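Changelog excerpt

This revision adds worked examples to the README so contributors can see how folded entries look when concatenated. The first example is reproduced verbatim below.
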Amino acid sequence: MADKHPSPYDRDRAVSGGRMRRASPLAGLAGKTTGEAVVAALRRRFGAGDSTEFHVRTADRYADLLGRSKGVLMKAGQILSFVTLGSLVPPEYRGIYQAALSRLQAEAPPMEPEMAAAVVEAELGSPPEVLFAEFDPHPFAAASIGQVHAARLGDGRRVAVKVQYPGVEEAIRADLDNTELLATFLQLARSLVPGLGRLDVRTVALEVAERIGEEIDYRTEAAYQQRFADAYRGHPFIHVPEVVTELSTRRVLTQGFVEGIPWSEAVRADRSLRDRWGEVIYRFAFGSLRRLRLFNADPHPGNYLFHPDGTVSFVDFGCVKHFTADQVSMMRSIVAATIAGDARAMWRMFVEIGFVDAVHGPDPADLLDWYREVLMPLIAPQPFTYTPEFAAEVVQKEFSPYGPWSRVIRRVDLPRDFVFLTRIDLGLTAVLGELRATGPWRAIIAEYDDGAPPATPLGEAALWHENTGRTTS
């Protein structure tokens, strides 16, 4: 008699497919969407009605296709869902895309309890009821490539156990070998706004593939998360859950359980609290880059849990980008040159890291003017308030070859090492924009880059904590 429950590693049968068969629907959808977007834009220009129907239809098509695709397509869709696709469309339609694409995060079908238990036993050597004092067989959250169960250890500690969906690794690794598939998918972002910009999709695809390739091995995620947890242990306003190493493997990750205010409620909180949360997120991002040379490259609001005292817990470290000391030093120098208005120094550094060509690159003055727009939160009078409108404007100014900075953007390249830095910047801008966070951002950056005195009470608390030696950051 056949077992009524499938093997925990057989799900790849349901998500496999030939390279051309998997890429073709994407190419067709991108082409169709581009044509419809042109028509919709012309209709708006000549006053022939709005484009709501087009955007609703397009968003649903993407969400449905990516949700069925599984593998790399679903993961890449999640990577782009909150920021890139949402910010590239007109503000009045942005909510349509965010709502549709959020299904990639919220509607992943859960594993049956027996299958989740089978994965845990296969990875850890014993069933959940033996390994844990308590283990809820029903997940409380869906992660990008797995689901999360609440549990309790024998010593009473509450933990969250992330269990990878069977077959996902096999499906993703097969897709990662298909560069045409991922490159075709990345055309989707450009198809939403015709002529979006100069984007070497193959270069982007390689970097996205590398980050996704790391994420499907929970051991890599656990190692990065523990580095962050070590650096911020006991921090006054940043919390990273500890990893339970002995209960973490390639497909199971056990970490401390965190409760907090979800994003949907955080964006409706009092302004003072939103400002504080925004500053915490900002300090975590740039403090980690400057001091640890690490960037959590998935600035999705679902990866933050907010607390009434103004602290923030950071979860999900599956997508982390590591930079060299020279790269971080160069980033700091570019920011300093931009703020100082030193066009020639900034241009030289852009040439050195490969953003512009020394012969065919843009004029230094034009390059400076363009990048000052990108760094407006540091250039504008302080304090500066992030808004959703500003976030969308940054996307257009940074990428659109038909906008006011087309003469610059068409001569700017995107080196592979900085693909995710751009996404992190856009993601952070979008998160702070949704919070409508206000802060003295230039003075905060000066703390990290110039050793300036603390600009806010949070800066004072962080400095005191570092001086006590209770954190390694």
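The second example, added in the same revision:
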Amino acid sequence: MPETTKKHKILIVDDIPKNIQILGNILSKENYQIAYAQSGEQALSITHHQKFDLILLDIMMPEMDGFEVCKVLKENPQSSDTPIIFLTAKADMNSIVKGFTVGGQDYITKPFNASELLARTETHIQLHEQKIELARMNELLEEKVKERTQQLEKAYTRLNQLEKAKTDFLDIISHELRTPLNGISGLTTLLNLTELSEEQQEYIHYLEDVASRLTRFSETALLITNLRVNNSQPDFLPTQVKYILESALLQFEKKNKGKYQSIQLEMHEENVLLAVNTTLVKKSLEMLMNNACKFGGQNVNIRLSMFSDEDKIILSCTDNGPGFSENSLNQLFEFFSTGDVLHEEGTGLSLAAIKLIMDYHNGKIEIRNVKEGGAQVQLIFNRSRYPAR
């Protein structure tokens, strides 16, 4: 057997000195440090002041037998993890089972076999050391996890603070924009009631258009922020698609009279239900029509339509405007870009907001140029998530 590089400490407990001598001679040759006790009380006193790597414990001792000693040792935190091998002349099953029950790890029968003794001793010492090392590694791991958790908690808190600061900032910006814009809108309405030259009327119309664009920008920016920070579960209600389309169309027509050539609504089916946040879907459709009108000009023709099959419900907005540039098609759904994702200019917020709305509904948005000229944007909802007609 190889020499033990570390001097492990072994306590031999036996009331017969000859047995202690035999065991001590065998183990000392393998570089183990040996201590001994000749009674249970003496063993408990020694283990109270000294920690051992292994205890060899005789069962048959007067006053306090090995089972009682083992039980006390296992109840003491200082010695509870120390492996115990019982020394017994008894090889009956009851004694063996009782030894394991009170906390023993193994047993050796008398008379002792040196090879067996050394093999069992080395095995249990190695297991004990591995157990200690595992406990140490677990403690280190727990410390690392605790440290990392604290870092993540700090980062999460900081992220929430930044997110709140961003939301509060956009709320303030939106409010500060809307307040003067409402004033400008009121003034332009009053000015339109007065006699103005053709040039002055042109200035007023331009001012109205700029104010309208700024209002839409602030509303869209605030909508994007709310969608990104909203962690609540969406509240979807089944609504007729016809009502959603007609409501969006009516709202768009009120705000954009004279800014387009024609607009039509196509319904392949009229009784289709869609379980959605109606306000958000109508807002998406309005933004699509606003973009079509903005980039297509007064000559643009807009078609709002609905198509459904067994799997999907598709709402689409098609126009005959200039379509998407190659550059814009590569920057779809970016919040800010040098060119609008729709056509040539702008900030690109509209499609980014619509993308978030479709994500909110677990849906998709698809965009393409039409061969005949113009562009088409489709809002695709998964049919399996919505009630049957």
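Reviewer comment on example two: Residues 335-347 have pLDDT under 50 and may be disordered. The first strand starts at residue 9 and ends at 13.
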